[in-house]
Design brief:
- The structure is a single chain.
- The protein contains nine helices and ten strands.
- With 299 residues, it is an alpha+beta fold.
- It folds into two domains: 158 residues, Ribosomal Protein S5, domain 2, CATH 3.30.230; 123 residues, 2-Layer Sandwich (Alpha-Beta Plaits), CATH 3.30.70.890.
- Strand 3, helix 1 and strand 4 form a beta-alpha-beta unit.
- It is globular and about 55 Å long.
- The two termini are 20 Å apart.
């Protein structure tokens, strides 16, 4: 049984990056099947939970004003209520979210927040549901929630429910994340997707250095890039800015966008690129960071 050691519990909710993303088919229920390699970053939101006599939610941070506290539209509150129902207990907690990641950005921020809330509330409420039960709950919240809950770099397939964590935790990779501060809904991007579908090409073990990795990733793609660029043409400018940066080995859309990432040879080049792009595009969200293979290292 998990036991809290403090009157409040704080859990990081890191951004996820799709190093590649193939859409391999569509099920009869309308859900798309994927083949993707996902890692996390050191950039993260923060979820804090504390005892309370009811279920409340508050948000702050650079992107806190963009969220709703309506239970039906708030993924964190839905996660909390579903977890309480699973455990057969009243949903009572004060949940605070410090939001540093952009909204509707292709970085899995909402999914990461929901997963972090599940981890924190299990500790607060002294519950220890089975891994299978929580996995089903997580998938009911969204396709990215299961991998965010697992918190390990992984190959993801199915509709997000089939996770194959990498056998060896990949070393940190220097990267730059760029978002043009334009939200882009995942549903709209999938709505523009046209075939043919891409056969899966899983890359279950990361190559040993950035050059081998980017070579392997260049043999793969993000199938959502084309429809995302139709809906949000400024993505082309984001990719061009990253590609033109010294030391950038690969620039690509993450998830359904519009956020893009660049993989760099080292942190020095990544930080210089972030500074240069920020100076040129003051209204963009630009951050130098590094990849994380196991999010427990952020705790």
């Amino acid at each position: 049984m998990l036991r809290p050691t403090e009157p409040f519990i704080t859990v990081p909710a890191p951004a996820k990056i799709n190093l590649y993303l193939h859409v391999t088919g569509r099920r009869v229920d309308g859900y798309h099947e994927l083949d993707s390699l996902i890692v996390f970053t050191a950039l993260h939101d923060v979820i804090t939970v504390a005892p309370h006599d009811s279920l409340t939610f508050q948000q702050s941070g650079p992107f806190g004003d963009y969220l709703t506290d309506e239970p039906n539209n708030n993924l964190v509150l839905r996660a909390a209520q579903k977890l309480a129902n699973l455990a057969g207990i009243p949903a009572k907690a004060r949940i605070s979210l410090y939001k540093t990641l952009p909204i509707a950005a292709g970085l899995g921020g909402g999914s990461a927040d929901a997963a972090a809330a599940l981890r924190a509330l299990c500790q607060l409420w002294l519950i220890d549901p089975s891994e299978e039960e929580v996995a089903v709950l997580a998938l009911s919240l969204g396709a990215d929630v299961p991998v965010c809950l697992k918190g390990l770099a992984a190959h993801v397939s199915g509709v997000g429910d089939l996770l194959n964590p990498l056998q060896f935790c990949p070393p940190p990779m220097a990267m730059v994340l760029v978002n043009p501060n334009i939200p882009l809904s995942t549903k709209s991007v999938y709505g523009k997707l046209r075939g043919p579908y891409t056969p899966p090409r899983p890359l279950n073990i990361l190559p040993k250095n950035i050059y081998e990795l980017t070579y392997a990733l260049a043999q793969r793609t993000n199938d959502l890039a084309t429809p995302a660029r139709v809906l949000c043409p400024i993505i082309d400018d984001v990719l061009a800015a990253l590609t033109a940066s010294e030391g950038c080995q690969l620039a690509r859309l993450s998830g359904s966008g519009p956020s893009c990432f660049g993989l760099f040879t080292d942190t020095n080049n990544a930080e210089k690129a972030a500074s240069r792009i920020s100076a040129l595009k003051g209204d963009w969200w630009v951050k130098a960071t590094y990849s994380v293979g196991d999010i427990t290292t952020l705790s």
